[in-house]
């Protein structure tokens, strides 16, 4: 069970909650934050802007050397924040000199005041670095409907400009909101004789649904790569990773994933998938996106189970994807998993309501390695004991074969517990 623990705590590096409140790390959290290498051309700093009444860092400022390429994907929400709109305009230009992330205030649904705050942040950083405002990428996360205070943002930036550079863990903590642990990942690739490093940090715990993906994620690499190719690779990786996760079916107004490539590794710049090393780099980028996506699900609000749903035999990959999401987003499926109840009938229900082609009498379902249903009924001689044992673990597998075609998809989600309600019933406090 997910437990909220009240303690007195003040940490300038940035714990995630009110100074008198700390949430224990998710039971699905990794044992420790990984050791992540520095990325040449990337300098990390954090500061306190005090967007909320808390004693933690809540502004992340990342400087990027001149020549850094950028790519990105953003939420498909029809009510995006001005930060998302700013990034949508800046990403196609292909260059970046800085990233600013504000935590505690989403600055979404704030009208002209919200846009003014974004423009003020970009202008201040551009003046500091001597670059164009469009070279400054901006994200904000937190409560919707409250304009971001320009005075606090500017004061936070002034503090960040002179702050001692920090490590990846501090930056990962500072971008968090309801996150219970800092999330980071590493991958590498060889391009000829040159080793390329990729480091990523991400925040996300609730309001997670795969309409692009709902979170803020940032990937940094020293590779030299054309921004158009980087965008192509990131979009493809996102489709198979961030857009395949869901915690609660809710899509945020602010979600953004950005990839920055400083070019400092010294490899021959990649401009097409036909270039030497492009496949290896693409695989590494996809790997780090998958790692980060899984870290978000493992920190799902109140989560006690990490759930992988594999769908095959659908009429198309798209159909398999939609069926997988129907299962993953079903409150009845998720609560059964929380209770360790092998109620495979709820999986049947979720498949049937998905609105996709399905044939009851061709359908097969398994939990873990155990086949539980096929041909429209339970497997003859079905023994629930191994399924019950599987459900007692933290990592759960559900497999579905529709028997209709070659379409397949994999979706990752978590269970639904009382902890989710406890967190979200008083989110603004």
Unreliable spans are: 1-21
- Per DSSP, the total helix count is 11
Mean of all residue-level pLDDT scores: 90
Question: Level of helix content?
Answer: 25-40%
| Corresponding CATH architecture of the largest domain | 4-Layer Sandwich
- General shape: globular
The string of secondary-structure elements, in order, is EEEEHEHEHHEEEHEHEHHHEEEHEEH
Quickly name the level 1 CATH class of the largest domain: Alpha Beta
Number of domains: 2
- For the record, give the distance between the C-alpha atoms at the N and C termini, rounded to a whole number: 22 Å
Structural classification: alpha+beta
The CATH topology of the largest domain is L-amino peptidase D-ALA esterase/amidase
Structure description:
The protein is 29% helix and 26% strand. α2 runs parallel beside α3, α5 crosses α6 (278-298) and α7 (317-328) crosses α9 (345-352). The strands form three sheets. Strands 3, 4, 5, 6, 7, 8, 9 and 10 form an eight-stranded mixed beta sheet that branches. Strands 14-13-12-15-11-16 form a six-stranded mixed beta sheet. It is an alpha+beta fold. It contains eleven helices and 16 strands.
At a glance:
The chain has helices at 82-90, 111-129, 150-162, 168-174, 227-240, 278-298, 317-328, 331-338, 345-352, 385-391, 418-424; strands at residues 4-5, 22-23, 42-47, 59-74, 95-105, 136-143, 183-191, 194-203, 216-221, 256-261, 306-314, 364-367, 370-374, 377-378, 395-401, 407-414. It has 429 residues and is of the alpha+beta class.
């Amino acid at each position: 069970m997910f437990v909220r623990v009240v303690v007195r705590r003040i940490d300038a590096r940035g714990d995630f909650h009110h100074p008198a409140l700390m949430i224990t790390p998710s039971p699905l959290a990794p044992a420790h934050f990984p050791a992540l290498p520095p990325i040449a051309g990337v300098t990390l700093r954090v500061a306190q802007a005090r967007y909320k009444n808390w004693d933690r860092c809540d502004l992340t400022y990342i400087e990027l050397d001149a020549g850094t390429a950028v790519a990105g994907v953003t939420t498909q929400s029809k009510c995006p924040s001005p930060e998302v709109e700013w990034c949508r305009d800046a990403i196609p230009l292909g260059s970046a000199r800085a990233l600013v992330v504000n935590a505690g205030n989403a600055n979404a649904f704030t009208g002209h005041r919200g846009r003014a705050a974004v423009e003020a942040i970009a202008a201040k950083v551009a003046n500091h670095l001597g670059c164009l405002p469009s070279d400054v990428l901006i994200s904000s996360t937190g409560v919707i409907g409250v304009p971001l205070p320009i005075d606090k943002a500017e004061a936070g930036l002034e503090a960040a400009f002179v702050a001692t550079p920090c490590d990846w863990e501090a930056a990962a903590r500072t971008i968090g909101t309801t996150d219970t642990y800092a999330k980071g990942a590493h991958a590498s690739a060889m391009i000829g004789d040159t080793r390329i490093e990729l480091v990523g940090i991400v925040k996300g715990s609730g309001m997670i649904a795969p309409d692009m993906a709902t979170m803020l994620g940032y990937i940094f690499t020293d590779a030299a790569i054309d921004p158009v190719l980087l965008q192509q690779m990131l979009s493809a990786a996102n489709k198979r990773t961030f857009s395949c996760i869901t915690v609660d079916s809710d899509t945020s107004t602010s979600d953004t994933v950005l990839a920055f490539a400083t070019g400092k590794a010294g490899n021959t710049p990649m401009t097409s998938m036909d270039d030497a090393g492009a496949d290896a780099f693409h695989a590494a980028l996809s790997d780090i996106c998958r790692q980060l996506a899984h870290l978000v699900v493992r920190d799902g609000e109140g989560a006690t189970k990490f759930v992988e749903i594999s769908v095959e035999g659908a009429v198309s990959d798209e159909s398999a994807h939609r069926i997988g999401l129907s299962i993953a987003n079903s409150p009845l499926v998720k609560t059964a998993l929380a209770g360790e109840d092998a109620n495979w009938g709820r999986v049947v229900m979720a498949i049937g309501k998905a609105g996709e082609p399905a044939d009851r009498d061709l359908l097969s379902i398994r939990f873990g390695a155990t086949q539980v249903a096929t041909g429209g009924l339970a497997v003859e001689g079905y023994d629930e004991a191994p399924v019950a044992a599987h459900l007692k673990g933290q990592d759960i597998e559900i497999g579905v074969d529709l028997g209709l075609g070659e379409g397949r998809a994999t979706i990752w989600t978590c269970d639904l517990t009382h902890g989710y309600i406890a967190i979200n019933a008083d989110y603004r406090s």
